[in-house]
Amino acid sequence: MLTDAGFVPTKAGTPQGGVISPLLANIYLHRLDVEVREAGFRLIRYADDFVILTRTPLEARAADALVRQILVDIGLEVAEAKSGVRRVAEGFDFLGFTYHGRFLRPRPAAVRRFKDQVRALTRRQAPVSLRQMIEDLNPVTRGRGNYFAMGHVVELFSKLDGWIRTRLRSKVRGSMARLVSRAKLPNRDLARMGLVSLEPLARSWRLSPVRAQPWVSRMRDPHVRF
Questions:
Q1: How far from the centroid of its chain's Cα atoms is residue 24's Cα?
Q2: How far apart are alpha carbons 97 and 110 in whole angstroms?
Q3: CA angle, 44 then 45 then 47, to 5°
């Protein structure tokens, strides 16, 4: 393992972000997948993050006990700070989303990270042209937008689009950007320069005929072990 102090030999684990880590995680956690599903529980797992949906609190507690038993047997343990049993209606976080009943939205922390990325790429004093700034920004906007577009995010994305455009106008209008009419740099001009907008991504997802309903919406009053 490479640290600030240099190379440190390790006897267990794989490097975070290593290309083989996801494959090893799936191999190592295959027993968890099989036994939890054979027990009749609905498991949704991505790498080492997972949730188990049940219909009653009793089933959720049984799933929790089963998971803990399996993990102990394979030399792992539950991350207590991220785990628990609750009703879906109470809300829970998973893979950057907050699930609250039938509503699915990005976690506030995920929105803050996205805005931090945008700020870093749209500094008014950055030594790049507006067109280059847009090119650098687009992969971040498109990536985050496509990931979160499945949620109830049209209003949020619309606000973020406006905020991003204001920052881009600041590049050419300085600190007076908020006081300058949009006519000086209208949305259509930014679009012609290739700026990716978030709101159309969300609307396209919601209109898609193949859009899947969130898995929690297909259960009545579900409970979740996560």
A1: 22
A2: 8
A3: 170
